[in-house]
Amino acid sequence: MFTLESGPCTVTADGCIRSPNYPSNYDNNQNCVFSLQQTVLLSVTAFRTEQIYDFMTVNGTAYSGTVGPEGQEV
Asked: Can you list the positions of beta strands (E) in the chain?
């Protein structure tokens, strides 16, 4: 489903993407890039970044804070 192209994130066998050091804090200047082999509908279990400083970008839309890309098709 997801392939990690670069960065210290991980993908579990069931397709869950996790930031480095999850569930603890991640380091400054972390960046992960993923590619997809098929179209999927995102289901967000937990999402929290340092608002204004850290983002997750999906289809050109940046998400920050506690509002993630729930239900986005990618």
From this structure: 2-6, 10-11, 17-18, 33-36, 56-58, 61-63
